[in-house]
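quick one, 353 residues, struct below
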Amino acid sequence: MRYNQLGRTGVFVSELCLGTMTFGGTGGIWQHIGDLQQNDAERLIGRAIDAGINFIDTADVYSSGVSEQITGQALRNLKVPRDSVVVATKVFGQTGDFANARGASRYHVMDGIKASLQRLQLDHVDLYQIHGFDPATPIEETLRALDTLVQQGHVRYIGVSNWAAWQIVKALGISERLGLARFDTLQAYYTIAGRDLERELVPMLKSEGLGLMVWSPLAGGLLSGKYGREQQGEAGSRRTTFDFPPVDRERAFDCVDVMRAIAEAKGVSVAQIALAWLLHQRAVMSVIVGAKRVEQLDDNIKATQVELGADDLAKLDEVSRLPSEYPGWMLERQGDPRRQQIGETRKGREGAG
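---
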């Protein structure tokens, strides 16, 4: 298990993060994603920690807070030292039936952290993330609330999930201008079959030093190897009960075909190749893996040992590469001469080496 910096901070997190969306199974969509109860969840958390995973991600909306409760109780039951694990949770989604029980307002953020800390049985969370963009709340209001939580010690670092690049950059500018805590991470959807964030988000992350946490790295199981043009998955499997996130299936199955050939040559699973491809992407800080069984988690963990050679990566890139769009193709065309000049300098040659 390798460890990467949490954005620009001095904290290091494992390249795999244990996701807890499968814990609880209470109501709505959550029952389709997983319904692990305390004992089974503890087995997963214990196995993850034994494998070197020191990063756990949850959210206040997962199973209406039950996921946080199970996670906190598991850390206590397993006697996990608090300083040995980085705990992340999120706020934004609806947590009650009244008008202000949602969003990224100061009202909801301040209430949200209190409720999450109580469920997790912690005095602070290491990473507090805004789970989505709130068109009703000024970004400055959200950042001031988060900065208050950092100053109070309830939150160590802050992050964001499912925002556009321009929204994040605007927030970073506000933080810099007002001297507020800044976002250190982005949690976003990214797979070999869904590389959309490479257009705007990845360049922004590299420029501004944010760490990328990847959610649904197997596209809701579609890239696990259990699905194909002639395979629809087992009855009751994730995609058959909750068809999310949206994926171009033909594109995905083209990727699966190439991954399957590489997996067979290496004697590993298709899922391991899909995860290994993400782990080979320089923008990725940590890949969130969720599981219903210890065997699934073990298979995911083995992806950290899969080495993809230049030929493997070239084949995977060819089958999954995004079609060129404006302004990308114009930026590439106009910037090539200048990049060539940079490459010819001593600094450029040293960087290439």
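The longest strand covers residues 155-161.
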